Amino acid sequence: MNNKTQAVALAALTVAALAVTTGPAIAESAAEPVAAAVPAVPVDQAPNVAAPVSDDFDADLHAAWEAGNMQAGIATAPGVAAGTAIGIPIGCVLGAVTGGTMTAIATAGTLTIPVGIAGCLVGAAAVGGVGAVLGGAAAAIPAGLYGGVTTFNQLRAQHSAGGATAPAPAQG
Q1: Is the pLDDT confidence value at 53 over 60?
Q2: pTM for the model
Q3: SS3 labels along the chain
Q4: Is it the case that residue 37 has pLDDT exceeding 70?
């Protein structure tokens, strides 16, 4: 079988598979009548109904996890930026010193400057990347823990007080 025959066979099998899987769905949806459109209620006229809060530990834990996730995500970017800004100069110096000194003896100083520059670039990339990871984690972990614990405590306190509305997400 050559490439053209294989391509045609594959295309035919794909068309057949699509026809088999979507054919009944298209036929069923075409047979059902379309419901009349219901006009949307403007926001200022919508009923102001507070969502009921259940006394479910797992639901509270999930809400706290989501709040902590949001706070950690927000704190990650500045942590990554700070870690990178600190890691790049440190890596450049380490790379220039180690790359330059290791080749200076072997080449008697003829390649010290080019190898020092290359060592600076490699060190900056390596240590800058590690700094980004460490900086992001150093900023995100405490922020996520604070946001999650605060939200969980608010939800549990509300349930013990018998509150009827859901609190806003943690803003800390």
Answers
A1: no
A2: 0.54
A3: CCHHHHHHHHHHHHHHHHHHHHHHHHHHHHHCCCCCCCCCCCHHHCCCCCCCCCCCHHHHHHHHHHHHHHHHHHHHHHHHHHHHHHHHHHHHHHHHHHHHHHHHHHHCCCCHHHHHHHHHHHHHHHHHHHHHHHHHHHHHHHHHHHHHHHHHHHHHHHHHHCCCCCCCCCCC
A4: no
Ranges of each domain in the chain:
55-161
pLDDT digits (tens, 9 = 90+) for 58-111: 899 999 999 999 999 999 999 999 999 999 999 888 888 887 555 555 555 556
For residue 125 the two structure tokens come to: 């990339």
- How far is residue 68's CA from residue 169's CA, in Å, rounded to a whole number? 10
Q: Are 95 and 124 in contact (CB under 8 A)?
A: yes
